[in-house]
Amino acid sequence: MSFQDRTAEFQACVSATKYRSRTVGRIATPNDNNAAAIKHQKSDFTRIAQKIASEINTTGQKLQRLSRLAKRKTLFDDRPIEIQELTYLIKQSLSSLNADIASLQQIVRQNAKDGRNQAAQIDQHNESVVVSLQNSLADTSMNFRDILEVRSQNMKASQSRTEKFVASSSVTANSDANTGNFMNAYNANGASAAMNNGSHGDYLSLNIGDSANTRYEQVALLENQVDAYSQQRLSSIESIESTITELGGIFSQLAQMVSEQRESVQRIDANTEDIVGNIGGAQREIMKFYARVTSNRRLMLKIFGICILFFLIWVLVT
Amino acid sequence: MDVNAAAKSYFKRIFQEVSGLKVVLLDKETISIVSSCLTQTELLENQVYLTEVLENQRENVRHLKCVAFIRPTKLHIRLLCEEIRNPKYAEYHLYFTNIVSRSLLERIAESDDFEAVKSVQEYFLDYEVVNSDFASFAMPHVLGTAKDTWDENALERVHQGVVSLLLSLKKNPVIRYDANSDMCLKLAGQISYTIQQELQLFNFRKSDVDPLLLILDRKNDPVTPLLMQWTYQAMVHDLFGIQNGRVTLPNTSDASQEPQEFVLNPFQDNFYQETMLNNFGDLGIKIKNYVSQLQSKSSKKASDIETIDDMKQFLEAYPDYKKLSGNVSKHVALLSELSNRVQHDNLLELGELEQSLACNDSQSSDFTAIQAALMSTVPDTLKLCLVCLYALRYEKDFPGNVKTLQALLVANLSNPMSASCVPVLLSLCGKQARQDEIFPSSNIFSKAARSGLHGLRGVENVYTQHVPFLKVILTDILNGKPRTATQPYASTVNTAIIKKPQDIIVVIVGGATFEEAKIVSELNAAQNGTRIVLASNAVLNCNMFVNDLLRSAQTIGNE
């Protein structure tokens, strides 16, 4: 005779229904909080990885804008300041990303070290996440380098073009100056001549001198402008160069990380080879067993046949 | 392993837990469960002053406590929820007869606005107690719309009943079932699933041998319910029908009189308990002794009451005497009615014929006897039984004769439609549907062996030659050679360590007869260390079996 007392369960039900009917409205908020709390419990690793991924994404967008700007081959609508700013920003974010990934790797290692109880799969997953982040970062920085190279090519090309133009303009300027000097001389001569020629000549010579003066000033201004422009170019090329060297640093760091990965890959390789060896051994054993079984069966059949034979003989005899 | 004791102790516990004046609230199904094991007097002794039915309209009685003893079906739970929403009694103590699902419990909790419910318990008494080793689930029809399928309600009821039986007897059994029956397989599957689900409930002290739950299908032994019975209990059930321990005698002598109603409960009637397994002849002798016992008492009473002490004694003994005389008159009335029926319908002869059909090999003489019986004024049910028996026995050997008898049956029945039960019986339980040979085999060796044995011993009683197939199965198990081919295990069991089970619970799907109950109680009485309990969806007699066949003839025919 057994029985089950479910009064407690029933009373729990009653109080649950009471509670539910009393606090229908209030029940939603703590639930949300709970959910948020559960979300917070996600590991630091996930959070950091998420942040890094989103940053890589934004950097990629910036890179796109930069590449659009860099690929423009106009002489005049070149916006060096904007490009420089973008370059600077991307450079900053790339280096910060690099540092972040390094710290992430640190976290993973620490977890693997002190969290022996954690499942090996979690470690594996974290490792692979880090590697994929590194890969995307490497891709981004590769793009960045390409764009910078394109930019420098473009700049060189445009510089050579402007040099062509600037060279011709300076030649004309020189000739102008020469002619100016010559004219000055001529003017001086002419002035004397004009002095000789009377008031008209005077007027003319004055005019000519004026015009020559303004022209000279103009030319000087032009020269100054060209100078400032090339200065600017120089500085931007320098900055690009420095960026490229920094990128080189990042690449070497990445290479180091990748080389660290190689060890584990090699271990996997070795394990696979072991497995192949084991399977081969197992197959050999099974073949051996099979051979033994078949031989036994044959023996059994033989004995059985002999028995039958004897039986038949016995039947025939009797 | 005594169902009655289990039921009694459940109720004792209930009345201990709820003290003071109380109302017992029942539903339509638990009424018969309660009435099968408690009397009104016992209820009154436990301060139960009202017995109400959940379905009825009731008055407010706010000063009484309510003991609700309810089967947890959806309908009853709904009614109970309404009841609790408007409580009519001081406090409610809910006792469910089976496992209540969590959702139903929550529904009740939701409607308990007044906190009227003081306790909720599950007392696994989901069966009617017939004898101390025989339980019934009161579900006469189990067959669905096709052959060998369940009616959904019946499956649920029988499943719950068996689970509660196991729980109340504290058994966590290994299950075996009839291999050729999908119904048994399905029931076995559901029961083992429930046991898996409710492992906490079924966590009983482990005995060294697991108890055995044997699920059998009626179709493997269709002969037993068709035969006329000759033990007291079975005869009464066969001829008048026992409903919830009550017998209603049709009043043949005087139609204007109310039909007499008797209570036949083996737990309250010692004489009945002694004699219910005796056969008709022995019963006569027992009742004669009983009457003379009463006579001796009454003669002593009437003779000399002279002193005051005598009067006092007489008055003290008078209620006992009254009770005894009431009991005697009841049994005498029953016996006289039985013997009337036996004489009127010529049952002795027909019984012999049925036994010879079931046990002997006398086809030609039986055939002519049946033909004669069909022509006579025997009740229709008996005619049907005879033809059914003949058809079962000789369906393969003499199909022509079976046809002739069927035709004769159609011609001689008041309702020729009911003759359709013969082909239905053959398709449901015919030779190709059964898995064991239930008739004596016609093999020459077995014949010789049998006749030799018979020659030595002689037949003890021509009316009780037939042995139900259940006895063969049970004795095989008791002798330690279970027939795992025909009754395989439902789950994988380590067959190497299977020993003779100490507790066997036999469930017969499709109804059990009192003859089988007799076998079980005889085996229990044999004191060989094994206790057996029989359970079934119904207690069959010829009438019910034939009605069930006719019903399935309609449902399956309509498909």
UniProtKB/TrEMBL annotation, chain A:
UniProt similarity note: Belongs to the syntaxin family.
Name by which UniProt lists this protein: SNARE Sed5
Mode of membrane association: Single-pass type IV membrane protein
Chief location category: membrane
Keywords tagged on the record: Coiled coil, Membrane, Transmembrane, Transmembrane helix, Transport
Single GO biological process annotation from the record: vesicle-mediated transport
Listed SMART domains: t_SNARE
Gene: sed5
Subcellular location per the Swiss-Prot or TrEMBL entry: Membrane
Species whose genome carries this gene: Schizosaccharomyces japonicus (strain yFS275 / FY16936)
GO CC term (a single one): Golgi apparatus
Annotated ranges, domain T-SNARE coiled-coil homology: 227-289
Regions crossing the membrane: 299-317
InterPro entries given in the database record: SNARE, Syntaxin, Syntaxin-5_N, T_SNARE_dom
From TrEMBL, chain B:
Gene3D superfamilies per UniProt: 1.25.40.60, 3.40.50.1910, 3.40.50.2060, Syntaxin Binding Protein 1, Chain A, domain 2
InterPro entries: Sec-1-like_dom1, Sec-1-like_dom3a, Sec1-like, Sec1-like_dom2, Sec1-like_sf
Domain of life: Eukaryota
GO terms under cellular component: endosome; Golgi membrane
Signal peptide coordinates: none
Any GO BP: intracellular protein transport
Entry's family note: Belongs to the STXBP/unc-18/SEC1 family.
Family matches, as PANTHER family: VESICLE PROTEIN SORTING-ASSOCIATED
Protein name (Swiss-Prot/TrEMBL): Vacuolar sorting protein Vps45
Species whose genome carries this gene: Schizosaccharomyces japonicus (strain yFS275 / FY16936)
